[in-house]
Specification:
four-stranded antiparallel beta sheet, two-stranded antiparallel ribbon, 7 helices, binds flavin mononucleotide
Amino acid sequence: MQPPAPSDKTRDLREFREVIRSRRTINFYLQTPVPRKLIRDAIEAATWAPNHHVTEPWRFYLLGKEAIGACVGLVRTIVTDKKDAKAGEFKAKNWAEKPGWLVVTCRKSNDELTQREDYAACCTAIQSLMLYLWKAGVGSKWTTGDITRDPRFFDIVGIDDDQEFVVSMLWYGYPKVTPVQSRKNLDDVLTELP
Ligand SMILES: Cc1cc2nc3c(=O)[nH]c(=O)nc-3n(C[C@H](O)[C@H](O)[C@H](O)COP(=O)(O)O)c2cc1C
């Protein structure tokens, strides 16, 4: 397939840029369900991310009610053990309000460079997925909290700890609140060489 032909439709490009720039990490969601087809399409599109040697190192786990309930119970336990029961309850309540749960893993490699490149590929796939959802009006949040390294979480999700590690637990849903963010100026992060 050819790359898109150079276009004089600069409006398309401006809109594309705006999708990238306006995407925000969403903490608070409406309870309106996200169509299963949309999330499946987003995952399928994400698998077209660049990946060195076409290793396709990603795996996606779309959680249903039962698995979500088990994760909420687990985070309650984790936080209660780490802090106290009140904090555990608060966290569980907060997590129970996340409408959509998607776990993204990366295959493990013994080769350091391959591992770095596979991880990088998974991150690009996740960004593509988040942008696809954002364009469809669906927000998301990438998390790497303690739970994503907990063997009890692997059991709930069916993750093979010998073969893969969690890159992201991604919550998704229609945003209730979209936060404001800022970034450094371009010239603070860009060096242009002659
Ligand atoms: C690898 C990675 C891990 C992240 N883990 C967390 C997390 O554990 N908790 C959290 O609140 N946000 C997490 N985030 C989201 C960032 O906090 C968020 O992207 C950042 O605040 C910038 O906001 P924006 O996404 O709206 O631009 C993570 C983002 C990335 C890329």
